[in-house]
Amino acid sequence: MIAQQILDSLRVVKLPMKNEFREINFREVALFKGEFGWGEFSPFLEYSDSECVPWLACALESATQPRPHLFRNEVSVNGTIPELSDQLEIIKVVESFPGVDTFKIKIGVNLEEDIKRINFVRALKPEAQIRIDANGLLKVPHAEELLGQIGEIEYIEQPCATLAELGELKSRVNVKIAGDEVLRKARDPFGVELNGIVDYLILKVQPLGGIKRAKALAEHHGLPVIISSALESAIGINYGLTLAATFEEMDFDCGLGTGSLLTLDVGEIPICDGKMKISNIEPEFDSLEVAADRFDWWKNRILRTAELLP
Ligand SMILES: [Mg+2]
User: Active site residue: 106, 170, 215, 275, which one?
Assistant: First the structure.
C-alpha cells in the first residue's frame, strides 16, 4: 500500500476520554482502509517519527493483509482503573467493565493514594483479581514497600524503568512481574534479554509492529503473554482482540477493554460478561473528525513515517 492509497481513505478523529489517563484527556486517531479492512495509526502525539514506524507497519498490516487463523471469537478482558483518587469516579469506572474478573489499577505517582485506590477497588470487587501497572515509575525500594502493603496480586506490570532495576526487584520480592515498556520501547525488542527479569510479557499490537511481529516476539522471548491496548479506538482494539485470539493458549484476561475509558468512539465493542467479541467494524465518523489543521498534521506524520518503513 503506497502513501497515496493511505491518503485516499484517511480519516482522523478526536475521541474524548472520561477521565485523564496518561495525562491526556483525548485520543487523536488516524484510520485508513485497505482491501482487508481498516487500519489504525494512533501513536501518542509526542512520539518521534522513528518511534511511529511500528505503529504504521501495524496499521498497514491490518488494512492490507488477510486475518490470521483465530482460536476463539471472543476474548476475556480486565477492567482498567486510571490513577484516580475520587471514590465516586472509581466506582463509575469499575461499573463500566461489566462482568470482568480482573482489574488492572494504574499506580506510581503517589504511594499513599495508590494503596488507597487498590484497597478501594478490592472492597468494591472482593472476588476480582488485582494487577497493578506502574509504567516504570517506581524505584526498587518504593516498589518493594508498596508490594509489602497491598496483599496478594496477580502481577505488577513494569514496576521500574530499567532492566537492572527490574532484575533487582525480582530478586527481592516474590511477586510476578510483567514487562511492557521494556519490550515496546526497546530499540530492538528482539535484542532485550528478559530471562530472569520478567515473568510475563505485555504485547501491544501497534507499538510492536502488527500481529506477525508481536507473535514473533512472543515466540522469541518464550514467556506467557497478556495482550493489552494502547488506548486505541474500536478499530485498533478489534485488531488487538484479533492478536489475542491467535494464541491457542490465553490464560490471562487481556487489557483490551479500554474503550470504556472513552466518551465517544468510532464503533462499539461491548464488554459482555467480561468478554469482548471480535467484530467487523465499519467506523462511524460523525462529529468526531478533526479540523483541517489536525488532519494535515496527521497526514504529514504518516508521510514522514512511511519514508522510514523498512
Ligand atoms: Mg503498561
Answer: 106
Sorted by where each begins, the domain ranges of the chain are: 4-67+288-306, 74-277
Q: What does the buried/exposed string (b/e) look like for 192-223 if buried means 16 or more CB atoms within 10 Å of the residue's CB?
A: bebeebbbbbbbbbbbbbbbbbbbebbeebeb
Average pLDDT over residues 219-243: 98
The pLDDT value recorded for residue 1 is: 60
Backbone torsions φ then ψ of 227, nearest 5 degrees: -90, 135
**3-state SS assignment for residue 254:** strand
Calculate mean pLDDT across residues 49-78: 97
**Distance separating alpha carbons of residues 245 and 256, to the nearest angstrom:** 12
**Cα of 156 from ligand 1 centre, angstroms:** 9
pLDDT (tens digit, 9 = 90+) per residue, 96-145?
999 999 999 999 999 999 999 999 999 999 999 999 999 999 999 999 99
Residue 157 alpha carbon to ligand 1 centre in Å: 6
Q: What number is the average pLDDT over the span 215-228?
A: 98
pLDDT higher than 80, residue 289 = yes
* Helices 140-147 + 111-124 axis angle, to 10: 30
Write down the H helix ranges in 69-110: 87-95
CATH superfamily of 4-67+288-306: Enolase-like, N-terminal domain (3.30.390.10)
Flag whether pLDDT at 56 surpasses 80.
Answer: yes
Catalytic residue among 33, 204, 215, 275: 204
- Distance in Å, CA 203 to ligand 1 centroid: 10
Q: Is 74-277 in CATH node 3.20.20.120?
A: yes
Q: Do the beta carbons of residue 179 and residue 134 sit within 8 Å? A: no
